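Lecture notes, unit on protein representations.

Consider one protein chain, 213 amino acids long.
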Amino acid sequence: MLLSINAVFNSWNGNKAIEYRRIERITGAEGDGGQRPGNGSSANMGSTSGTGVAFTRDPNTGEDVFYGDYLINAQGEDVFAGIRTPEPISRLEDDMPKVYEQLMGIRQKLETHYKEMQDIEFTVQDGTLYMLQTRTGKRTGTAAVRTAVEMVEAGDDRREDGRGPGQPESLNHLLMPQIEPKSRQKQGRSRSGPSARPRAPRWAGWSSRRPRR
């Protein structure tokens, strides 16, 4: 337990953490915090257990669809480790229909409450859903604009409290070179793989990432 606690606090001064705070302009923070949950859930207890991460909207386009990945009989780090290929979140409806229905309801509640696209993590143990965390989701500039417009149209405008959807810096993505969707369809795929982050094209052809829906 002490080793785990020390690892959390030591991570505050890690290179990635320092760089993240610089990029996100987080200043004045003096340290990290940690907690020990009373009862943990296990996601690797068979076919009725699993783990996943998801966005309440597509972070690449802003489309109002549930977007993410999950793994059956796996722990949270397995989704990112590359040991197994995650499944798109839409297939969870076939594997665990009750859990998927719960997630869809929670997705709507989170966006209604925060009035912002959310990035969530969850665990399922023996068919029971446990929500681990939610936070404002990172997105491309294209997605930020579409999300903001659609939320305003739906009556979820946050301008009254002085906070607009998304980060202004994300709009830089709109100024980067991009390939039109129609051109992509004509050229076909030259590469494919799980999505990681938005990128500007730097070579001939284009790189397509399989949608996680």
